[in-house]
Amino acid sequence: MSAHLTTVGGVAVDTRHFIGGERVASTGTFTDVSPIDGSTLGEISRGTAREAAAAVAAAKAAFPAWAATPRAERARILHAIADGVEKRLEELAVVETTDNGALLRSHRRGVMPRVAHNFRFFADWLLTLQHEDFDTRGHTNHVSWDPAGPCVLITPWNAPLMLATWKVAPALAAGNTVILKPAEWTPLTASLLADIAAEAGLPAGVLNVVQGYGSEIGDALTSHPDVRRISFTGSVPTAQHISASAAANLTPLSLELGGKSPLLVFADADLDLAVDLAVEQYDNAGQVCLAATRILVEETVADEFTRRFVDKAIRLAQGDPRDEATDIGPNIHPRQLEKIDGFVQRALAAGAHAVIGGHRGDGLYYAPTLLTNVAQDSEIVQEEVFGPVLTLQTFATEEEAVRLANDTRFGLAATVATGDPERAERVTAQLVAGTVWVNCFFVRDLQAPFGGSRHSGVGREGGTWSFDFYCDIKNTVTAPKGWKDHG
User: Fold this and answer.
1) C-beta neighbour count of 122 within 10 angstroms
2) Which helix (H) or strand (E) element contains residue 473?
3) CA nearest to 208, candidates 16, 392, 38, 340
4) 471 is known as an active-site residue
């Protein structure tokens, strides 16, 4: 086997970059480690400004031909990529579970099918993308979406391939070329995606994948004058750094930055449903940007809600994510585990009470935790933990519930549990959030806008909103007269 191939769960993965349709090695490497058991998965090419420049140059060279490719042909190739994902679904699921520790059953049944759907959806949306012409004093206005150019897409580790393709698919559909930079903790499925795209007939240079650590390669990508769009999912500090880097070139940004979302449980709610929604927030070991980690419960039902919550939460099985019976796997990295435990221990020292959890398990496993007796202005209520840690507070009135829900610097999502449709309408109208779920959670349609308010992000993607971002939108105004007779 080549020195640049590693085998993960029986699947061969190339550890080099993919630039201009070729595999490119770096002189330096970094070690990729599985969070499940700490085993080494491979030595990954560690990119620098040199690889960043090469990837942008390849994307720039490939852009004119790809931008000129008819919509129907672009859509055909995106469907072929989706076919490739479905053909290798089991391999992708096994590799990603090993690389990031999320449940294998979830990757098989939900995540990887969604990866294929990302490509199919945006391929089909491209073919129907249009705006009706409109009239201005007899002049015709025609709106078109022109490909913007090379796009840098920087993606996180909590759902590596799904969140990468949520960006890659619309960028490619729009006629752009892409430089994808996956998170250094989870680089493997991005490498497999490059192989799948090439096999599907995507021309060389249209999709490039470069690996490496933040500033070592990221700064060279986000400050490059030939980059026309940057989309990033991750932390607020990193987004601030990227924004500063992109400012010199006025490169448009789409930023999805996580949150501290509330779950509002009113006394008129179906309590069993509300409890199910609350326990669901432990999904992916709490490493979900949309998670409703602040549970706000009307005080008259708080005791009963808590009792039912504990009864259900303590039955969650924590262990190896490759086991079909496991409900919660490990957290991603020792550094992340230290961060999670630091939040919890500081909260406990400040007077919080751990109803369940509040401590580490073996390895990178953290016990599902519910904290009460927390102040609204405390760190544990205000800052994103990104682990299996929830807080529970009570409220007396609808007005207080809304005030508590909105009282953070974030605004990504919110969930409301109520049996009163009029209350649902009143409350959702007042919540600061990019997405609000009523009596449900994590129902996502790709045609809907997605993004956050306040420090949860800038911009919206999804459906036409994605094409609005990844394109230069042009309006052509044509006079009613003035044509020469070319008989």
Assistant:
1) 29
2) strand 471-478
3) 16
4) no
pLDDT tens profile 46-64:
999 999 999 999 999 999 9
**Other Cβ atoms closer than 10 A to 68:** 9
Q: For the CA atoms of 169, 233, 6, 86, what is the dihedral angle to 10 degrees? A: -30
Nearest to 371 by CA among 387, 391, 394, 346: 391
The answer, yes or no, to whether residue 349 has pLDDT greater than 60, is yes
| 165-212 per-position pLDDT tens digit | 999 999 999 999 999 999 999 999 999 999 999 999 999 999 999 999
Which position among 51, 151, 184, 289 bears the catalytic label?
Answer: 289
> Which of 256, 298, 384, 461 does the annotation list as catalytic?
256
More confident residue, 255 or 2: 255
Contact 431, 414 (CB under 8 A): yes
> Would residue 73 show up in a list of annotated catalytic residues for this protein?
no
Asked if the model's pLDDT at residue 2 lies above 80, the reply is no
With a CB cutoff of 8 Å and minimum separation 6, the contacts of 416 are 263, 264, 266, 424, 427, 428, 431, 436, 437, 438, 439
Residue type, 245: S
